[in-house]
Amino acid sequence: MPDLLTQNNLVTLFVFTTGIVSIYQLLEYLTTKNIPWLFRLIRKWWRRIVKRFRGVIPAGTRQLILNFSGHPVLPVQLKDIGQMMHWSIPEVITVSLGNVPEDHNFVSTIEKAVEKIALSPEEWQSIPIVCKGDKKTS
Prior knowledge:
This protein is mostly helical.
């Protein structure tokens, strides 16, 4: 035990403790003061990963927006959707639902509306599609 409390051992213990405290303070500073910077860095890495796995849509591929809302898609909305999806010229197909019953038996009404869309099974599986509907505010 007396060998543990020598001056050389105490200096080593002090340097080790100081290093641990410094690393802790640096990590605390990076995570509390630089959160926007860290979020931007993580978001940039995530977008690169998603872009790599998503791939590029071949030129000439139809890019569809299915509009179930009953309201026209405004040019600003079309532009925003195109930017979010990285689409050059999306095509809008408006699907009329008519009166949808609220008694939870609306599946047949939705099936009929989707069947009206003139797409083959291959197109349903291969064409990039985004659906737009109304947001309920209740």
